[in-house]
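tokens incoming
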């Protein structure tokens, strides 16, 4: 029902910045809570951030607080993740996901739709 496509990943030096985008298909984007997850090599997929339908409420994982900023533009059916002061431990495939829940879930099982992922690599 919802197709999600991430973009904006790449290679950056530690301390640098990247802005990821998640473009959603359909006309129901604004009805979904949207999240970002990431999966580092050899690690489980982990929660990064979740933003509510209006964009006015956001939760961040402790590891990215103060460095990452989530936002969304419902008119463009797009969610963003601004990543500043990147660290090598941020290296991962980043996935966007959509949830039909009314809360702001951190668990990946709460998300109905997933993008294909975009690679972020941070060199030391």
């Amino acid at each position: 029902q919802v197709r999600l496509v991430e973009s904006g990943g790449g290679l950056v030096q530690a301390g640098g910045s990247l802005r990821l985008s998640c473009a959603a298909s359909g006309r129901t984007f604004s009805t979904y809570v949207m999240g970002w997850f990431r999966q580092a090599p050899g690690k489980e997929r982990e929660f990064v951030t979740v933003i509510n339908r209006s964009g006015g409420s956001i939760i961040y994982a402790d590891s990215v607080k103060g460095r990452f900023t989530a936002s969304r533009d419902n008119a463009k059916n797009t969610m963003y993740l601004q990543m500043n002061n990147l660290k090598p431990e941020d290296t991962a495939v980043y996935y966007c996901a959509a949830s039909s829940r009314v809360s702001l879930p951190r668990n990946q099982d709460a998300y109905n739709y997933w993008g294909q992922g975009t690679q972020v690599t941070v060199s030391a």
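note: The CA atoms of residues 95 and 117 lie 4 Å apart.
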